[in-house]
Amino acid sequence: MNAPEKPTPTSRFHDGGADLDGASILITGGTGSFGKRLTRELVTRYRLRRVVIYSRDEAKQVDMQQAYQGVDNGRCLRFFIGDVRDQARLKMAMREIDYVVHAAALKHVPVAEYNPMECIHTNVLGAENVVYAALENRVKRVVALSTDKAVNPINLYGASKLASDKVFVAANHLSGSVGTKFSVVRYGNVVGSRGSVVPLFQRLLREGAAALPITDERMTRFWITLLEGVDFVLSNLRHMRGGEIFVPRIPSMRMVDLAKCMAPDLPIKVIGIRPGEKLHEALITVEQAPYTRALPDRFIIEPELAFWNRGEIDQFTRAVPETFTYTSDNNDEWVSPEQLRRMVAEASAEPAHA
Length: 354
Known about the structure:
The protein has helices spanning 33-45, 58-67, 87-93, 109-114, 116-136, 156-170, 197-206, 226-239, 255-262, 337-348; strands spanning 24-28, 50-55, 77-81, 99-102, 141-145, 181-185, 189-190, 212-214, 220-224, 245-248, 252-254, 268-270, 282-284, 292-294, 298-301, 318-319, 326-327. The chain starts with 23 loop residues before the first strand and ends in a 6-residue tail after the last helix. It is built from 10 helices and 17 strands. Helix 1 (33-45) crosses helix 8 (226-239), helix 3 packs across helix 5 and helix 5 (116-136) runs parallel beside helix 6. Residues 1-9 have low confidence and may be disordered. The strands form 4 sheets. A 10-stranded mixed sheet has the order 3-2-1-4-5-6-10-15-14-16, with helices on both faces. A 3-stranded mixed sheet has the order 7-9-11. The protein is an alpha/beta fold.
């Protein structure tokens, strides 16, 4: 197999990531927006032994397989039909796996509100299954994807992801001589991901909408591109010690600015905040400030666990103020119209196997 060329860094978090050549990686939710882009970057940047795409969507797996037919570096891909609710299937899929990226989840807030037990079974019990499967197979490192909605949650989706985060952080207590390390990556809205507002606005514009719906003109959100999310995960896979929650420094966007940028000539229709929705999102609360360390491009929320040696990272991080919070409305970085147009264009240009 030909060695893939190392691409020129194109996101703020690209630092080379972990040294993954020769490794085997499993991605839960591998046919989702994040999983597909992560797969694309992995097979482009590294010479991997295996990349296992673990998901329950048969049609998307077939589409993904076809997209990589004839792609030399795509020969390492393996496709496992399976659900994170199925611990036995996870244990089988993780045999001889070095690293796991856990991206599978039920993510839609209204769907979770209407189907609470389904959300809990996938997001909470599924997290537990990933932990047990990783421990049994002596996986080296596990990174779990979280969300800003897990911070001071007001909806079931956020609450389930908070519980999931707790499961992965506490899993480091269970490692013992096995040595598996578990960490969490938490960030905000991904521009252009399935179910996000950008594809919704694009569809409405294609259908000739007379106005774009906004829930509240004051609403703000954190924004990150798929590539930035992938690079952030890979960089933390390299640096993690186990138990941290990694939070990227990312810009905020006013939703009304997004609508005006995508359709400057259309009016805005305010439809009101939906159940379980916030005006502004948070990534770090004041209660977490005493455990938060800062780097130029990210924050590290240290675990409140006995095994954690806080002195080890003090030399290259700094403490945040006691009253520090990191919310989408008090951010010191905002997406400019030019940046937003670029981000939307990049999201629209994602290839089928991205």
